[in-house]
């Protein structure tokens, strides 16, 4: 067999019939086989399913409307893609909705994260069914596979960790066989299953990571993530005027960027690829002839400043009740709470009488953390902040970024400058 390639198409690239036709064109025009194609849920389906899950707990009267919207969205796309030949696809989709309704007719499970994963997987299952039916109509050979049969995980629902040995051997069996027979596999990103065949997910936007896991296990020659951007940019074009595409960056640079919050690829994606030296391409699905960005082991020198903004940050200032020093034993107590609530600390600083952390404003997690900490500490909270990270900064860029903002906290380490800021009103 030739070396395998892995493609990943995100939600935006399958959001409607036109988008799915474009995926078909890309798959038809690339001669590359064997090819594994990982696909996300259509458009904003995962958010819509999250609303359904919340409604199941808090607002069940609203469930029929929400589920109906989801059905109509998928069935409309199915009809306009397959005009006239959609019956068997509609039957497949119907089976999925029946299964979903079974879950929703029961009481919601007491374990929210478990329940979430049993429901959220329907987005990926439905989208891949639709793409697969369209490819079949286009006579593009492939086999549809349920990723839960080979992405094997632990039971950390909503943030499941790959069980590498089981995953490797399942991929060797199911995926290699299908590739051997059909040349191409269509499967879901993001979803997996426990040894007890319960559904799990790898964290929001986790499809990129699925593509990397497959590439690792299959010793792929490359991974291509098809996106609605020209490649990896020096900053978010929605926020900044003068942004440029990065032609090539190293794995290490990509790891740094995603660690600091760059949203182009899921942070866990790079490591498995780096371990096997598999290059990753980020390319625009609306201009498939363009090169995009290449991420590989080649170290790049003289990179321009790269800016990552994480909005909606909160600064928590934690001090002892008697205003004595915050000592090491306090820190270990503080971090116990932080890790128990699975909160990611984006920046921290200790001062004489307080310990300061900067975290994302996720209200439910933060409320719990604050409650716990208030048993022993005095807490103040400042909301509405941005965390700006600049790699390879220069004076000009930093001056420009500081303009019009109050700088709350600033730090520089190696090639990375960071600041927590507040817009002047
Ligand atoms: N559909 C999932 C999400 O929106 C996973 C993904 O797209 O990567 O988070
Ligand atoms: Mg997505």
TrEMBL record:
<dbReference type="InterPro" id="IPR001048">
    <property type="entry name" value="Asp/Glu/Uridylate_kinase"/>
</dbReference>
<dbReference type="GO" id="GO:0004072">
    <property type="term" value="F:aspartate kinase activity"/>
</dbReference>
<dbReference type="InterPro" id="IPR005260">
    <property type="entry name" value="Asp_kin_monofn"/>
</dbReference>
<protein>
    <recommendedName>
        <fullName>Aspartokinase</fullName>
        <ecNumber>2.7.2.4</ecNumber>
    </recommendedName>
</protein>
<dbReference type="GO" id="GO:0005524">
    <property type="term" value="F:ATP binding"/>
</dbReference>
<keyword id="KW-0418">Kinase</keyword>
<dbReference type="InterPro" id="IPR042199">
    <property type="entry name" value="AsparK_Bifunc_asparK/hSer_DH"/>
</dbReference>
<dbReference type="InterPro" id="IPR036393">
    <property type="entry name" value="AceGlu_kinase-like_sf"/>
</dbReference>
<dbReference type="GO" id="GO:0009089">
    <property type="term" value="P:lysine biosynthetic process via diaminopimelate"/>
</dbReference>
<dbReference type="InterPro" id="IPR001341">
    <property type="entry name" value="Asp_kinase"/>
</dbReference>
<keyword id="KW-0547">Nucleotide-binding</keyword>
<dbReference type="GO" id="GO:0005829">
    <property type="term" value="C:cytosol"/>
</dbReference>
<keyword id="KW-0067">ATP-binding</keyword>
<feature type="domain" description="Aspartate/glutamate/uridylate kinase">
    <location>
        <begin position="6"/>
        <end position="283"/>
    </location>
</feature>
<dbReference type="Pfam" id="PF00696">
    <property type="entry name" value="AA_kinase"/>
</dbReference>
<comment type="pathway">
    <text>Amino-acid biosynthesis; L-lysine biosynthesis via DAP pathway; (S)-tetrahydrodipicolinate from L-aspartate: step 1/4.</text>
</comment>
<comment type="similarity">
    <text>Belongs to the aspartokinase family.</text>
</comment>
<comment type="pathway">
    <text>Amino-acid biosynthesis; L-methionine biosynthesis via de novo pathway; L-homoserine from L-aspartate: step 1/3.</text>
</comment>
<feature type="binding site">
    <location>
        <begin position="263"/>
        <end position="264"/>
    </location>
    <ligand>
        <name>ATP</name>
    </ligand>
</feature>
<keyword id="KW-0808">Transferase</keyword>
<keyword id="KW-0028">Amino-acid biosynthesis</keyword>
<dbReference type="GO" id="GO:0009090">
    <property type="term" value="P:homoserine biosynthetic process"/>
</dbReference>
């Amino acid at each position: 067999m030739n070396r395998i390639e892995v493609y990943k198409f995100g939600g935006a690239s399958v959001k409607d019939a036109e988008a799915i036709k474009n995926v078909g064109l890309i798959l038809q025009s690339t001669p590359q086989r064997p090819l594994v194609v990982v696909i996300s849920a259509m458009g904003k389906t995962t958010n819509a399913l999250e609303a359904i899950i919340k409604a199941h707990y808090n607002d069940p009267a609203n469930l029929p409307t929400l589920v109906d919207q989801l059905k109509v969205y998928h069935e409309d796309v199915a009809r306009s893609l397959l005009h006239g030949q959609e019956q068997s696809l509609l039957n497949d989709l119907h089976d999925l909705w029946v299964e979903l309704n079974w879950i929703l007719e029961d009481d919601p499970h007491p374990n929210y994260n478990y329940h979430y994963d049993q429901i959220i997987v329907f987005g990926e299952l439905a989208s891949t069914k639709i793409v697969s039916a369209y490819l079949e109509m286009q006579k593009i050979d492939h086999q549809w596979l349920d990723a839960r049969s080979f992405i094997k995980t632990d039971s950390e629902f909503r943030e499941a960790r790959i069980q590498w040995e089981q995953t490797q051997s399942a991929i060797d069996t199911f995926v290699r066989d299908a590739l051997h027979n059909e040349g191409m596999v269509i499967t879901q990103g993001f979803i997996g299953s426990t040894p007890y065949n319960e559904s799990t997910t790898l964290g929001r936007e986790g499809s990129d990571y699925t593509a990397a896991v497959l590439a690792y296990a299959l010793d792929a020659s490359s991974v291509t993530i098809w996106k609605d951007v020209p490649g990896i940019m020096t900053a978010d074009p929605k926020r900044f005027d003068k942004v440029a595409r990065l032609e090539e960056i190293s794995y290490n640079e990509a790891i740094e960027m995603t660690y600091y919050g760059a949203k182009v690829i899921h942070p866990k994606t790079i490591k498995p690829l780096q371990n096997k030296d598999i290059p990753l391409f980020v390319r625009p699905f609306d201009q498939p002839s363009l090169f995009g960005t290449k991420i590989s082991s080649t170290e790049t020198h003289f990179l321009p400043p790269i800016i990552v903004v994480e909005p909606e940050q909160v600064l928590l200032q934690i001090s002892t009740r008697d205003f004595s020093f915050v000592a090491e034993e306090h820190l270990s107590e503080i971090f116990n709470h932080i890790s128990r609530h699975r909160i990611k600390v984006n920046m921290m600083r200790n001062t004489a009488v307080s310990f300061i952390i900067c975290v994302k404003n996720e209200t439910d997690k933060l409320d719990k953390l604050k409650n716990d900490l208030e048993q022993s500490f005095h807490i103040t909270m400042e909301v509405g902040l941005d965390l700006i990270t600049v790699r390879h900064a220069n004076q000009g860029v930093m001056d420009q970024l500081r303009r019009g903002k109050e700088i709350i906290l600033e730090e520089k380490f190696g090639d990375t400058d960071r600041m927590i800021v507040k817009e002047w009103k």
